[in-house]
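re: that chain from earlier
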Amino acid sequence: MSPLLKTSLLCLLTVSFCIGTVAICAAQPKSSQLSFDSTKAIKEIEQRNEIFLNALKTGDSIALGNFYTTDAKIFNSGSPTTVGREAIAKFYGRIIRGGVNSCTIVTTGVWGSGDNLVVEEGNIDFLLSNGNTAVKGRYLLVWKRDDGILKVFRDSFSSDKQ
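^ sequence. v structure.
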């Protein structure tokens, strides 16, 4: 077989594959395609964050733990990963006993796939009772719907302190 014929057949097979793939994708019903409403997600995250802020203000580490899924993980800056809701509640208990009782949260981005998983990016400052900043940094949260409620599934925090 000549090189020109081999090249022509290869091109024909490639084009046929591409056309077939496009046809299969186009045939998928629209209902199976996931849609994401960022406005709705931001509103729900803001409501959830209010619950977080109130629990921190009242020193309720159990409520802070319940803010997370049972299999959640916090990837801490400069310390081991905190795994599970019970460990997360204890983690927040230590933070509260250390004098943190509030924080400022600024969401800088939200992305999702359908309604069950949402990723939030933002900046957070944990504040002491005297108003001074205890820790300032950035976070990335993966929210997962758990019994109809968005809860944090993965929490990654990075401190701005060098």
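Confidence is low (pLDDT under 50) at residues 2-33.
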